[in-house]
C-alpha cells in the first residue's frame, strides 16, 4: 500500500509485516511508513495527512483496500488497484466513489490486453533504470533447485525486494 500525501510529493508507505519493510521505505525516501497488518495503520496515515492523500497504490485488496479507500482526499484523491495479495478483489461502493469525488482505477489487465502498452511501460522502466533514476531493490537470491523455498518466502511476504532465481 502506498499513498502520496496531499501536502507534498513525499510518500507514505505501508508494506508487509514488521518494521523491516517500513524501514526500507524510509531509507528509500518515504517520510512516513506503516505496517498495514497493524490495526491502526489507516488512522496513523490520517494523523500525518489529515486532508487526505493524493494517491493510494493498492496491491493488497480485501480489508486493506476497504481501510485505504477512506484515505484519498475528497474531490481529487485517487485509488489505483494493481494487485490482490490478500486473495480478495477490492469492492468499492459506487455511491461513495461519487460522493467523495475520488477516482478508482485498476492497472493490471491493460498490459495483457494491449501488449504494446506493456512493452512501452517495460521500455520506460529499463530506460529509467539504466539512467539510474530508479533502482530496483534486490532481495534474496535462490538457485533453481530452491524455487519452492523462494516461492514460499515470497508468498509469506517475509522478503524485502525482488526474489531472484539464478542458475
Automatic annotation (TrEMBL):
Source species, domain of life: Bacteria
Pfam families, per database record: ADH_zinc_N_2 (PF13602)
Region: Disordered, residue numbers: 1-25
Residue ranges of coiled coil: none
Biased segments, Basic and acidic residues type: 16-25
Keywords noted in UniProt: NADP, Oxidoreductase
Annotated InterPro entries: NAD(P)-bd_dom_sf
Compositionally biased tracts (Low complexity): 1-13
Protein name: Zinc-binding dehydrogenase
Lineage: Bacteria, Bacillati, Actinomycetota, Actinomycetes, Kitasatosporales
Amino acid at each position: 500500500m502506498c499513498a502520496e500525501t496531499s501536502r507534498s510529493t513525499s510518500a507514505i508507505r505501508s508494506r508487509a509485516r514488521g518494521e523491516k519493510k517500513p524501514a526500507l521505505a524510509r531509507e528509500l525516501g518515504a517520510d512516513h511508513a506503516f505496517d498495514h497488518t497493524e490495526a491502526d495503520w489507516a488512522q496513523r496515515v490520517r494523523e500525518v495527512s489529515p486532508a487526505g492523500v493524493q494517491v493510494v497504490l493498492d496491491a493488497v485488496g480485501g480489508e486493506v483496500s476497504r481501510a485505504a479507500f477512506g484515505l484519498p482526499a475528497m474531490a481529487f484523491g485517487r485509488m489505483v488497484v494493481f494487485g490482490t495479495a490478500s486473495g480478495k478483489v477490492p469492492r468499492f461502493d459506487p455511491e461513495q466513489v461519487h460522493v467523495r469525488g475520488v477516482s478508482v482505477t485498476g492497472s493490471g489487465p491493460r498490459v495483457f490486453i494491449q501488449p504494446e502498452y506493456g512493452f512501452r511501460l517495460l521500455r520506460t522502466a529499463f530506460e529509467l533504470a539504466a539512467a539510474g533514476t530508479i533502482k530496483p531493490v534486490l532481495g534474496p537470491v535462490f538457485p533453481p533447485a530452491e524455487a519452492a523455498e523462494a516461492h514460499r518466502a515470497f508468498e509469506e511476504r517475509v522478503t524485502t525486494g525482488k526474489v531472484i532465481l539464478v542458475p
